[in-house]
């Protein structure tokens, strides 16, 4: 028998055309279609036995198709007419002609006529009247279901079977309804209490959006029943204090202390509505660990940070289906539509390296931005949520003044996410009772909207009346909830409806950051590796490749050369040193996660961490096969994003101290696209929120005649941000240095961001190599003394010292050797921050007769390291340090290779004191 799922109306036009063809010549269509239309004719006649005549039968055949189109119209367009707006017709709610019987020629059809509803899940007898009633109850009440854009038919059918039989509403018991009222009472009472106690202070209250609290409580407790054990929430500031207190059980007294300025002076700190929190709560399914991520005012930037934290927790649990850890992202309507990082984050949702098995997105839809006067000024889309359609996410628009509808769509959203492991959006349509903040006067820019808002009773007041009319609570009982909550709040204790528990995360799933707190950056750590171990690892890189795996000939030569380097037969290059660091770390139990655009191969074809079969779509990752027992090595060629991907990796690193997390910019210049993450999280997260993070950033850097856009990773910005030992800034100049640096990053009991300015041309420079003994001996040297001037007598002859970092060292070295200069020493600063003051003094003491000290950089004088480190030299006793560089420029570099070479030669000669020749 033919599958009749097409009767949902999606194919109505096709059916009409096919049916007309059938009427003209039944034999001209497929026999299965002939049988279907014959059956349809018989059904139409049986529904109306009193009717006779071919004209009546034909009319009923056409009516059946029009009913299918009507059903389809409600599924597609019902959300446009749904009563989702608590402000009435002020914003979007429109009359949709396609939802009218007249549009489909059905206005004169007897309502008692029975039709085949197709896939429409109606419980009552499918008469026209019952079908229309069920459609309107399901699709145009206080929930607007927007899901027909989804390409996967299975997902659409599931949603229809989930919502249509219940006509878009749940069945709540009296205790459940009283619980919702209790949660709304807490949400409203919290804001009113703060408004009276801390007059004029900003809190970015939740007034008008109080249904967010029962929404989150539903996710927590329904999620607990379904097996979830951790939830990570990312949200901006509106309603944040309410969520902290009424959902995450932050003691009210702690919050009051923040209002009153009682903070830990050890750190810079941050405003109260940017802070995060974590707790363990009890649910029917067991303990639940809740986390609210710290974040700044940069609106949507917390979304990918939260995703990274979720992924780290899922990886730790080996939660491959997302059954145990859920991410919740709470957005503002204007920001959701306006911030590009939202799109970037959605684009990562189903990718291998970044998927978190579905995020529940909640849009607190105030129907306004900051003080935007009209919707047309804030977005070009009809809904603020339209961007979510790019990943076929279902979107549920719900009236925030109907808390039962809010709870219902939340349940549906959670079930969808758990089943399909995909993102889902809840558009909580509400309003902002006060201004953007409590000192703002919204009537200046929104007089019409706020004349409506002022006349509205609160969500809690409406719901209390509704329950009183239904006999669920008495007027006195509803008032008693207000008094009880106010008393709890005044006592300064825990006010939320969740009961706290101390049996949250099992010990093996907890992260232990305390061992890294307050540690000095100078720690003696043995980062060496024996020659035998190096040889074994480098040999395995080739020997473990499957016999039938066809490697590119040039890549095979690289691997063969690395094996020779491991045997000490060749000097090690950069790729060898870097890969050896990863191999040794995973052998020692540290996981490695490396991501970035083209980082598997390496932008400059030096890494080859991923091998590609030359005849089949297969990959081989040698670093996953370096030992019989090793930690996980993950390498991801990321989506073409800097901001969201770096934020994701930051979030991952803040949740996982035992994983070496590295983000690599394709070119260092591209880090510009992630500047918000650097400014607001990486450089200042510890001082603002006491959040440690061991994230590593690889930024290819060096002026090599490739123009303004492929030269500079903006070193000057990082040295400017460096303070209070917030990060490490390193410019390693040889393979052994990068080996020891990466191992030091994990082996120390110390976790700070590590910013590494990596080379491009040095990846294959004949001088940028290391002998095997440099890996078996030594450590990461923050200052490297001159490589040629080694004995005491020679050092005493030196009159000029050049200090430098990075690629320019090799230009200086080659020119000095060419000129056979013996009175000039070149010292490398491999770590610019924390500045290695004592180590530099120790090296400079080898040169007692110095008359001139130069800081040489290839960047323009207004860029590069100079302005960020020149004050470091002022404390030393030796002569004044003079900068030699390119002149100040607006762009990082010239666009002409010829001009670049002339400039480079001139600054090298000036630094060496050769300009007078």
UniProtKB/TrEMBL annotation:
Alphabetized UniProt keyword annotations: Oxidoreductase, Thiamine pyrophosphate
Cofactor(s) this protein requires: thiamine diphosphate
GO cellular component annotations of the record: cytosol; oxoglutarate dehydrogenase complex
Pfam family, one: Transket_pyr
Transketolase-like pyrimidine-binding domain boundaries: 572-765
Domain of life: Bacteria
UniProt EC number: 1.2.4.2
Record bears the keyword Transcription regulation: no
InterPro entries to which the protein is assigned, alphabetical: 2-oxogl_dehyd_N, 2oxoglutarate_DH_E1, DH_E1, KGD_C_sf, ODO-1/KGD_C, THDP-binding, Transketolase-like_Pyr-bd
One Gene Ontology term from the biological process aspect of the record: tricarboxylic acid cycle
Any one Gene Ontology molecular-function term assigned to this protein's record: oxoglutarate dehydrogenase (succinyl-transferring) activity
PANTHER family on file: 2-OXOADIPATE DEHYDROGENASE COMPLEX COMPONENT E1 (PTHR23152:SF4), 2-OXOGLUTARATE DEHYDROGENASE (PTHR23152)
Annotated family: Belongs to the alpha-ketoglutarate dehydrogenase family.
Its job: E1 component of the 2-oxoglutarate dehydrogenase (OGDH) complex which catalyzes the decarboxylation of 2-oxoglutarate, the first step in the conversion of 2-oxoglutarate to succinyl-CoA and CO(2).
Protein name: oxoglutarate dehydrogenase (succinyl-transferring)
Protein species of origin: Thiothrix caldifontis
